[in-house]
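User: Please run a holo structure prediction.
Assistant: Happy to. Please share the sequence and the ligand.
User: Here you go; the ligand is manganese (II) ion.
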Amino acid sequence: MDFQITLLPGDGIGPEVIEKSVQVLKTIENKSDNQFHFSYEQIGGCSIDANGSALTKEALAACQKSDAVLLGAVGGPKWDNPDSKIRPEQGLLALRKGLGVYANLRPVKVHPALISASPLKEEKLTGVDMLVVRELTGGLYFGEPKGRSIINGQEHAVDTLIYSEEEIRRIVKMSFEFARNRKKKVTSVDKANVLESSRLWRKIAIEVSRDFPDVALEHMLVDTASMRLVTSPFSFDVIVTENMFGDILTDEASVLTGSMGMLPSASLGNGKPGLYEPIHGSAPDIAGKGIANPVGMILSAALMLRYSLHMDREATMIEQAVDQSITDGCRTLDMGGSLSTSAMTEEILKRMQ
Ligand code: NAD
Ligand code: IPM
Ligand code: MN
């Protein structure tokens, strides 16, 4: 089959890591009967500089027409003025909304050989294997009203946390479906002791759970969840939560795996195409040095093969090559080693032969 893949390298280390995932995909293409057609579009700061907008209509339309979208990262200090009306991150939010990808899957698995790369004790990390299902197109990120105004001579700012029951139902349902094929436990994370939106979330989660009698549902407040993520991370199977809680908890969870550079993600909606991106940002502190960890990006490409291109065998081949390279001691700087982005990728490629 022929697949159209739109590549959005973005800013900072985005272009450095996306190039490596393309190398991996080209190796896969050579081993399969499928053809990948890659095309590049701009997003984020580079698009602001070139087009005056973080994502042009044309770039979004190209993404909507493709089978899958692979994204590096957006943002950086150059575009960080808090008074600026145009910001790189708007491009990413417009893309997620424009593709309708409401479910962001962030798998967190600790590789036994990387336990020493994490600040946590070994006994906390053994067996950690969870899937965070982050709601991606609702909540505080998109709620209206949003913006700034002057009230009684004082500048005010507002963001709105709003969810409809349908938005909650579809994401919770998806998380139960994933749990059914895993350890059969869903932890729904909310702040129901304070937020009305969380109380609706809890009510819908209970309703959905009735259709999944084989899966256990537990509710956990987000502050407790952030504590449990480091005291008993192995107790989680599937976590489902609203947009911003999921954003924050997954950066925390990445520490369990040894580095922010390790975690991939898949963003899915009801139709195609899916969006695939590592959870890390543009890492301005290391950009341009050729030392970024490519693993989160390469594993995102593997998720793309699995969820959008139905190439499960090839996805597993990439994941096994990454695992084996880590078992064999290959490490970038952030993992406690000294390999460059290119050298780490070469080690992964070697293990795909
Ligand atoms: P960040 O994730 O870019 O970096 C946090 C820390 O992790 C840095 O020390 C960085 O060097 C390190 N790190 C991240 N990815 C790494 C990798 N692959 N290999 C090695 N080390 C890695 O977060 P930040 O510094 O808070 O944000 C920088 C910019 O990125 C901001 O503009 C932010 O908005 C943006 N951002 C974008 C995305 C995205 O595009 N999906 C995600 C998060 C942040
Ligand atoms: C992420 C990032 C984004 C988010 C930003 C850059 C908009 O932190 O993908 O985790 O908050 O969703
Ligand atoms: Mn984030």
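DSSP finds twelve helices and twelve strands in the chain.
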